[in-house]
Amino acid sequence: MTRTRISPAHLLLGSLLTLGAAQAAPPMLNVATGSPTGTYSAMFKNVGQLCTQSAYLRERGTSGSLENIDLLLNNEVSLAFVQSDVLKARQQIDKDPRVEGIRALLPLHHEEIHLFARPAVVKKNILGKTTVTGVQNFADLKGKKVGAWGGSIITARVVGAMTEVPYQIQTFKDQASAFAALQAGQVDAVLAVVGQPAAWVKNLSGVQLLAVPSTPKLNTIYTPAKLFYPNLGAQSVPTIAVQSVLATRDFKTPDKKKLLLDYQKCAMQKLVNLQEDEGMHPKWQDVTFKTWPWPQYK
């Protein structure tokens, strides 16, 4: 039996090739999105179809912005889709110093506030007097219970305080549990922040969408918007919206910084494709990459 001798030069060459391959591989970064059927998840996948470096970004499903910002601040993910009002609340209300290290990798779409309630019941007594039970408009929420989950919990608090309509916020783990409580009469309304058209909203029935007022005070954070959901009889329901961002931390490591900046550059260069290619989420048409509600990652 003949043995092949391996020279020291070959060993050195093999080691260098292995080392070079290891150095060439970018780090794998986790990205907190949201539910599998949500806007965040869809937009993350859309960018992945056009930008090859996204192969090194791995999606992590979550309950939404509130969980996402905690994961990012606790170094459990490197990127997170978040509502800008959640970031501002963490900075200005909670006074969390860690938020100062957050940067916006990409400024994204506006997410509309959806306010749901069961249809009000109108009755007339034998004397012809009309009585209405339930919630017909935003002002009717005074003293009522409003369900929310994820980043919508923060939005519900901010909107309630700014409009001076004192409703009680009931927190839930997800959309399904919040709507189960609504149908059971345990809450009077559900507030959800999601980019329209949301697939799960298009499948709802037995609820109505209520208008959310736009006021000068609210307009310091939110912008006026309208909701369109024919399945709920909503041809044009006034509401407000908050801009979302793909956030990261102010990383300085060269390989991680390069990966993030390459991803940022590719998404910006491919914006027209994201807006016009078939199958892309319609919310890309709301993106301009010109308005930054949070400091940019550079």
From TrEMBL:
Presence of the UniProt keyword Cell membrane in the record: no
UniProt entry keywords in alphabetical sequence: Signal
InterPro entries attached to this UniProt entry: TRAP_TAXI (IPR011852)
Stored SUPFAM superfamilies: Periplasmic binding protein-like II (SSF53850)
Signal peptide region: 1-24
Record-linked PANTHER family: SLL1037 PROTEIN
Name by which UniProt lists this protein: TRAP ABC transporter substrate-binding protein
Source organism (scientific name): Deinococcus carri
